[in-house]
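re: that chain from earlier
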Amino acid sequence: MLKNFMMGLAKFSAILGGIVLTLLIVLTCVSIVGRLINGWMHSDFMENLVPEFAQWVLGLGVGPVNGDFELVESGVAFAIFAFLPLCQITSGHATVGIFTDKLPTRVQRFLRMIIELVFAAVLVLIAWRLYEGMSSKMRYGETTFLLQFPIWWAYAASFVGAVVAAVVGIYMGLVRTYEFFTDRVIIWDGVGAEQ
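^ sequence. v structure.
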């Protein structure tokens, strides 16, 4: 039951991160195309060949999306934290097992338990520091340069993703600890990612 809830939470977080990342890709493409068209309409070629058309297009406001870098920076930070829970619960992190793959199963389980517990502690630490950063940005009312939206919004979005990652990390730490002491496998590597 708890396993299904955690898997669902991790998948929901990853889907949300994927939606945000897709929107950021579209935003970046629109901004790049707008910047290219704007530059082309300002070129000597267009201003000499069809100046009225060039001015009409420029009058439409064609150009880069204002504040695109600020939006991408904030959105990518959230997306990274949104993908962490699914990566954590499916053991999708990159590993190098040249040495550890040759160790006895019991030692491998012990190492996995320690790694999961340390990872959970790091995720809790990151969430805590994001909360502190968000609180600081709220207190001082800092805003972005171009769009003037409060910086704490980006911290809040990342904090939500970090909390979900920390919760899943703690769960996985407990699961790996249980697996070590009972010699049973509760969550197999990669299971759930394809479901």
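Helices lie at 2-41, 44-49, 51-59, 68-89, 105-140, 151-182.
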